[in-house]
Amino acid sequence: MRLHNRRIYNLCYRFTNSPDDAQDLTQEVFIRVYRSMASYHIEKGAFTTWLTTLTRNLLVDHFRKSKQDRVTDSIDAGLREEDDSLSLGDRLEDPRPNPDDRLASKETQRMVQMALARISPDLREAVILRDLQDMDYKEIAQVLRVPEGTVKSRINRGRMELARLLSRNKRQASNE
Amino acid sequence: MNSEAKNGMECSEFEALLAEALDDALAADTRTAFDEHGRSCAVCGPLFAETWEGMVMVRGMAELEPPKNLVHNILAATSRKAATAEQLAEEAKLGWLERIRRTLKPQVGGLMHSRFAMSFAMAFFSLSITLTLAGVKVTDVKNMVAHPSMLRKNAVLGFTHVEAKVASYYENLRLVYQVQAKVRELKKNTTPVAEPGGENRQQNRKSAPEDGRPKEYENYSMERDGGLIAQTFTWHEGAQI
Question: Which pLDDT score, from 0 to 100, does residue B79 have?
Fold first, then answer.
């Protein structure tokens, strides 16, 4: 559990764009793991793939319940969450040298997260699993239950949409 | 996306190889054809650039630190769930009597001492006999314990059953009394009542003794009732006349 909680939390957060939902969902994932541990067999695949499949199913359920097509959270929510994840001591000992760089990096990450939340869930989950969870195409195809070709196509389209959204946001920001 | 072949590669093929190209997983000759097509194609070049930019952006996102209490919450939740599951599995194995005993144990633990056991046994025995006489079956009690909602239903059913039995008993008793009363009435009506005087009187007069002494006759076929007494009395009167 200690090995996987960070990965699952990140997966949930990147998908839901909400720290509270991510925490609740991560907790729910591990409760389900404990309940259905008997149903896992090593022949079916790696434990990580099984765990990711379970998480993905839960995220899909959550998405259907909340009908969250577009994230409407305020900008402050993202910043507050990232600030809360670090203790005062950690923040004091932050090795990053320049506060301006930190701010720019945070702003970029926030923009990427917002763009990620705006693309369609099918593309979002494929991109997250590939680029953030570092899973290979075969594993992603197993988790999403789609052919590998579809996985690659979704990842490419997801990346393209992200790049377009980000460039549009940058243009808007420079005009302002 | 057009399907024009440039540098030995079509645009659809370029798009299919896009993911592997970004992962740097293409063979050398394929990679060369891919790069040449990207450079020469007005559609595929920007497509590759956009996709690459998107990938770099997403991969540049830092991993978030989960909240400090997340592990604690998960452990608390899962251990509570596990304990509940084990408890339920254990309870499922127990019989209904054992379940009752465990439920009552905290409240009446002291009363389960051996010196009280005989008293309880006798009380239970008496109760079971009473219930049996009242028409309550043990299976009903078992069902009542398993389903407490059946308690009221069974009580009402039992009461109705007993009430029906009592009503039926008194109905039968009344019928018997009615039949007895009818038989008595019929018997009374069919019995001939002897009239004073008449033929009997004449017969008695004919057979009167010559010596003038009154002779008493007793009709043994008749009951000793008022009629016979009246008849005897009348005969004496006739003799005197």
Answer: 74
Q: Tell me which amino acid residue A90 is.
A: D
- Rounded alpha-carbon distances, angstroms, from residue A16 to A11, A112, B220: 9, 14, 119
- Of the candidates B175, B239, B241, B165, the one whose C-alpha atom is nearest the C-alpha of residue B207 is B239
Chain B neighbours among A 69-128 (CB < 8 Å)? 81-82, 84-87, 105, 108-109, 112-113, 115-116, 127-128
Q: What is the token pair recorded at A5?
A: 């909680």
Question: Of A110, A9, A16, A1, whose CA–CA distance to A70 is shortest?
Answer: A16
Q: ipTM of the predicted structure? A: 0.70
Does pTM surpass 0.90?
A: no
Task: Say how many CA atoms lie within 13 Å of B202 toward its Cβ.
Answer: 2
Task: Collect all residues of chain A within an 8 Å Cβ-Cβ radius of residue B14.
Answer: none
Alpha helix segments (H runs only) across chain A: 5-16, 19-35, 47-66, 75-84, 88-92, 99-118, 121-127, 137-144, 148-175
Subunit contact B66:A84, Cβ cutoff 8 A: no
